[in-house]
Write a structure and sequence with these properties.
alpha+beta, three-stranded antiparallel beta sheet, 17% strand
């Protein structure tokens, strides 16, 4: 008997939305990688992205389209 995946419930819907709405890859883009981003919080290979549209654990060498240099002024 084939088991089909369960439908995404409300609890997990936000994670699926983040996956659909973000370009997140497990390798750097040119010289940009998570541990050089202003939203990266942590030390070592695994840490947390504090960008309001991502907010998940990330690897140091990952990259997403929301990458910003720590030297950039915040527009907020």
């Amino acid at each position: 008997m084939v088991e089909y995946p369960k439908p995404v419930d409300a609890k997990h819907r936000i994670l699926v939305h983040k996956l659909e709405d973000n370009i997140l890859q497990g390798y750097p883009y040119e010289d940009q990688q998570c541990d050089g981003c202003r939203f990266y919080i942590g030390i070592g290979d695994i840490a947390y992205c504090n960008h309001m549209l991502v907010r998940i654990p990330v690897g140091a060498r990952w990259w997403c389209q929301w990458w910003e240099s720590p030297d950039e002024d915040s527009a907020e």
